[in-house]
Each structure stands twice: as structure tokens, then as C-alpha cells.
Amino acid sequence: MISFLALRSFLFAFLLGMFVGYVSWGQNLSFTILSLFLFLAYLLVDKRQLLFGFVWAYYLMASRGFLFGVERYYESFGYAFLAWIAVATLSSLLWVLIWSASFRKRLLLFPLLLIVLILPPMGFISWVNPLPTIALVLPNFGFLGIFIEIIVIYSLAIFWKKYEYARYYLIALIVVLLVFILYFSPPKVREHPDIESIQSNIEYFPMSFDKSNEYKILKIFFHKVENSKSKNILLPENALGNYSSIQSMLWQDLDKSKTVFAGATIYNARRSKNINALLEITHNSSKVLYKQRVPVLGEMWKPFINKGTEATIFEKATVKINGQKTGVFICYEQLLVYPYLQTFFYEPKILIGISNLYWAKDTNIKSIQKETMELWAILFGVPLSFSVNG
Fold this sequence. Notes:
Layout: H1 4-24, H2 37-44, H3 48-62, H4 64-74, H5 77-97, H6 103-118, H7 142-162, H8 167-183, E1 196-197, H9 211-227, E2 232-234, H10 245-250, E3 259-268, E4 273-281, E5 286-291, E6 318-321, E7 324-330, H11 338-344, E8 350-356, H12 365-380, E9 384-389
Parallel strand pairs: 1-2, 2-3, 7-8, 8-9
Antiparallel strand pairs: 3-4, 4-5, 6-7
Helix pairs in contact: 1-3, 2-7, 3-5, 4-5
């Protein structure tokens, strides 16, 4: 039987994980630094069940918007609840499987845990990763910042284990640092001065095939572009709907001085799949700039059947926009670590993010996507343009 003491310890770990997960994401960019306690917990917690309780609660609370967004999308609370629990549980199991009761072995296994959390397949499921939050302390440090972050986590864990008498001093130091970070405004992300990001709140769902509604939405976005004084305008994911030569005719009336960058769905007849893409549109031309590398697994990307949205994991990680190397992230990609590491390997000068989150309206998903993109932009010192519908 489970002892009362063990149950109480598990409950405490679970509640602590709930607090860290809830506060870290979707509240304030500064608060994301608290998520680093996840890494410290892995190295310092000596019991597997306590680590599971902490990590599981963290994922459940950080991804709480997933529950309500999926419920709205599928109109089924039961399905949404099971999906929410399943994703959080799978992500948490990684932490307890790649774990050892030996502190020394945990130190050795920690890099393996990070790799498994980043690379496919689990890297395409697990999000709210604390890795980019070091940007709040080390802006513009890039990959060096990530390396320093790991060294600091190791140092704190070793100090905690080796010098028990000094733990209170370490706690005091951490508290002072957190208060300093949380009190002062985080480093500001730079907005791209030459691209206007259009935000919208239009009721349209991704991958819909209602041609009449698509045309109405297209007209709304066209008028937003026409009323803009900018020469370069960014529109949200799927703003152009299921793009074809018919939709492109509307943009022939576009001001000749303007260029539109917008999300669209394009049907690939050769492969019987859709492409979720970013298009570049002028009054007399349109071209695919970027194809989404990692669509939502299961809902959009169906790897084992010949339909759904095509994944282009190993294709172009950067594109050229106005002559500048640009990293593009469409919706779900903004939550993962792998696409950012892949992109920054090619040293982009701009980041662009587009999303359609009408289905997740009034949840924390929009905030988490924006916070994650801002953290990476700050860490690597590049400007960000972010356009979302929702």
C-alpha cells in the first residue's frame, strides 16, 4: 500500500508543478524564467514518482489552453480531455524513463533528455520547453547562451548536492535573481521596421473548404492591406484560404508598390496532400516562399496515410524576404524547439510567425506561441514580425 507520507509528498510535488506550469507560460514574458525549475527538478529530485508528479502537473497546467482549444475545435470535451492527458503524460514519461536514482548518472543523462525532448518523434509532441528562457538573462547570446544555461543548471545542482550547509544561501541567491528578473522589464523584442503585421479576429477555421466563406475572408484581408500605409504587409496563417488561380485574381487590384506575405493552403495533386505555406503576393504574381515543416501531428500531419498536410522537416529552414535571410514559423512550429535550432543554424536576420488561433480563442496558446517566439528572437538578437488571427 502507498503510505500516507508518500502520497503527501506526491501531492506536494504535483501542486508545485501546477504552480510552476501555470505561472511560467501565458502570463508574462518575465515569468517564463520560472520554467527552468523543471531542469533543476530533474537533477535534484531523488524519487521517480515525485519527479513524475512535478513534471506531469507542469505540462498539464502549462498546456491548459490545449484542453479548451481542442474541445472547441472538435466540439467534444471527452476527446479534448483524453488528448490533453495523453500529450502531457507522454511528455512526462520521457523525464522519468531517462532518469536514475544516482545523482551522478542523472548528470550524465541530462543531455540525452534534452536531445530526446528536441528531436523527432517526441520533440514534435513536447512543448513549453524551458530552453529559450535564458534569453531573459543572456539576450543576444544565441547558441552560447544555451550552452551557458546548461552549465549554470549543472553548477546549481552540484552546489546544492555537495554543500548542504550552504543551501539557504543558494536559495536566497536564486530568489534575489528571480526578483530582479521579474521586477525589471525583460529585454524587448525588436519589431521589424519594414513589415507591418496585421492582427485579426475573424471566425475561420484552418483547413476549411467553404469557398463562399473563404472569399468573404479574402475580401476582408484585401481591404486591410489596401488601408495599410506599409509597403510590406504580413497576414495570418491561412488568411488566403485554399489558394488557387481564382483567389489570385483578386490580388491583381493590389497597389503596385505593396507586397503581401500571407498564409495559405495549397493542394498538392501529385502527392494528394495539402501544403500549409507562406506566400509572397504582388499585383501580378504569387509564389510559395515557405512550406510548414512541422504541422500538428495527427490532426494535420498524418505520416502513415496518404492525406492530410505535408511535412517538410528537412527542407528550407530559411527564405529570402527583401534580400534578407528570414526564419518562418507557422503556428504549431512556434511551440517546438527543433525548428528554431534548425533555423538559427543558418543565421537568419529576421523571424516571422503566423498563426490562426480562432479555434483557441481565449486560451493561453496565443500567449505561449508569442512568448516562445519572442524568447528565441531575443536570444539571437533578431527582429520579429508576428501575425495572428484569434
